[in-house]
Amino acid sequence: MMTYYILIGGIALISWLVSSRLKSKFKKYSKVHLRNGMSGAEIAQKMLDDHGIRDVKVISTAGMLTDHYNPKNKTVNLSEGVYSQRNASAAAVAAHEVGHAVQHAQAYEWLTMRSKLVPIVSVTSSMSTWVVFGGLMLGAAAGVGFGFYIAVAGLIMMGFATIFSFVTLPVEYDASNRALAWLKQKNVVSQEEYAGAEDALKWAARTYLVAALGALASLVYWAFQVFGGRD
Question: Is the N end or the C end of the chain the one with fewer CB atoms within 10 Å?
Answer without folding.
Answer: C
